[in-house]
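Final report, results section. Input specification for complex C-07:
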Amino acid sequence: MKARALCATLAAALLLSACGAGGRPAEGGAGAEAEVGITPTSVKVGAHFPLTGVAAPGYSEIPTGTKAYFDFVNAAGGVHGRQIEYVFRDDAYNPTQTSQIVNELVLQDQVFAIMGGLGTPTHSAVLDQLNSEGVPDLFVSSGSLLWDHPADNPMTFGWQPDYEIEAKIIGQYVAQNFPDSRVGLFLQDDDLGRDAEIGARRYLESQIVAAERYTPGNTDVAPQIAALQAAGADLVIGFNVPSYTALSQLQSLRLNYQPQWIYSNIGSDPTLVGSLLARFSEGAVTDAGLLEGVLTTEYLPGVDTPESPWTQLFQRVWDAHGGEGELTNYRVYGMAEAYTFVQALQAAGPNPTREGIVEAVERSGATFEGPWVAPFRYSADRHAGISGVQVTRITGGTTENLTPVLVTDNGDAPITEAPGEPPAPPADGIPDVQPAS
Amino acid sequence: MAQQTLQEPPAATTGRRRLRWRPRSTFGRHALTVVVAMVAVMLVLEFTSPFRNSQLATMSYYAIAAAGLTVLTGVNGQISLGHGALMAVGAYTTGLLLGPDGDGALPLPLIMLVAATVTALVGTVVGAAAARLHGPYLAGATLALAVAVPGLAIYFDHTLGGEQGLRIASPEVPGWFDATIYFLFAHETPSAKYLAYLGWGTLLLVLLLLANLMAGRVGRVWRAVRDDEVAAELAGIRLGRVRVLAFVVSAACAGLAGAVLGVVVRLAAPSGFTIVLSLGLLTAVVVGGLGSLVGALLGSALLVFLPPAVTNLGTAAGLDGTQAAQLAPFVYGVVLVLVMLLAPTGAVGVFTKVWRKR
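Structure output:
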């Protein structure tokens, strides 16, 4: 009899804990209705990142950088007296989970905004939801052109240079500096490769001898590399993710194929590619030595340039507020996004609202200055991120600049040199943007 | 297997004469349970937060698929590591029929029915192959399905949207539904709550149908095939046909689950249907209690509610976000190992045992 009672109680308790917890969201207080996620002393921001699973290496470091920078700002008093509370959750790079996680962030955690959500397939799963519920969706961590549709998605903003303008700048550089080369393209068969091919063909249409595509997930790239070799390509531009940089390098080593390689920014982090090379080759290749002489692009100062004042600032932030591990390029990326968010929050004024912060970014986002090499393209009818990159060469574990910062836009916009020197960071390391009004 | 026999409702063996004069037929009893459950679901959905509603919507599609799988694995004794792929078939069918904006599409129930039918057709093909295989070979064949189907979506990326997936319109809340709920509870019906209703309505319907199927002749034949093939064959049961039928029923459930997933998540993308999903369903069925529909419900609740609960506990205990996130799969694994070691009959098995011991 006792056991039966125990069983019933247990079942009831389970049922209650499964359904009952959480409770209804608090009703708006007396007087003016408070904005979701904002109190007089805090503002809550959420993000989704792959913290576990295949995409976790590298990418899972980004939110730790963001958090360290927010802690740094909070220690200095926050923004307009508000501490930034940053909640990031794991979606394992699975769009189904992203939608659950974002529900949790928006409905349960009641965040003011989503910031820096990572990945094209993952973030597209929540694009409609965030926009229909009016949640600011700032600075998506992906170079897809999807985030620049203010008419359909007024709350969503891109952040990093999109793949098309990066490809245009690489294309022009190749056309000017390797006019006689036979160019091969190595493309990921999705938005990344498609957007990039459009950009590259603008300058290289006559030079391209082969465009080979791989399907993400299929780790055998032998047919693609062999086809590039057979077409006689002596310069190959890869628009791919880091694991395919490693795979294409190993495969061309196997085929004794030695073209000049160029990889887009997202596929070229030397530390990550080095560790992937070691793993894929089962120890036969131990570091990123294969990447020696490879060309790529940059739009943020990296850990390989410790003399940059921005790297020094981020190093200081990481030493004071970071967790375990070293400062990496991924953490710098997270900090730079956090820096942008602080600017946006400052621009939104002392009483930020969800619509207010979107308007503020549209109005003054183009003037935000930070570690990025070229300005954002934000305006009332554009939500595109950083407008330029710099072509660099990887040598001896560091990078050497080959061009000044080149700035352009999507479509047939011309490529120009960025005017002026990149700004130095403010002495206290915290931006000071006046409210946009 | 003793527990399973105990849970089964008394089979309607004594035949039609009894049915005639007893209003409480097996179907009647099941229908009554479902009606009571529907009332409970309505109360829960109306009086919990929007976030719990969305979690319950998620749980509903896991539970639909798990219920189908428990019929296949628990009752008929066939293993499937490919149910995630069958859900993908349902989700993509829904996506293609509903379109990205949902204008001028067929009514949603019809679309869900088509999704289930298409998946059942795929299930027939797979089932026909599966009926010839046993044990690890069957596991291998269905595993291949789980690996291959998401690849198809990437290969035909112009129709199926490739890696980024297919956007699916979220259905509008019908006016009559909104009005009814307002009449009953004086609550508005936001889209998340409507989707939870849709998911749970479908789930309860599926459970009703499956419970009847399991209680009747079909279920008996399935169990006979599971327990002793030779004896079943001697009794005149055609093994192949019975196995294929179990696979088809199970696939239709997976297709419906995929359809619900599609409208709840608003996206069908290959990375949502990896082998992890198929294995998740199988663990849900096993942890809950193999062969029991209640077990499938419990298992899918665990799948949905455990990871965020563990992550929040981790954060409360002072872990940083990354560590807390990594804790969830770890605890999930530990729970699975413990259940296998200490309670191989799953949660339902343990409850029944304790209940009968007094």
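The first strand of chain A starts at residue 38 and ends at 39. Chain A is about 40% helix and 20% strand. This concludes the modelling results for the funded period.
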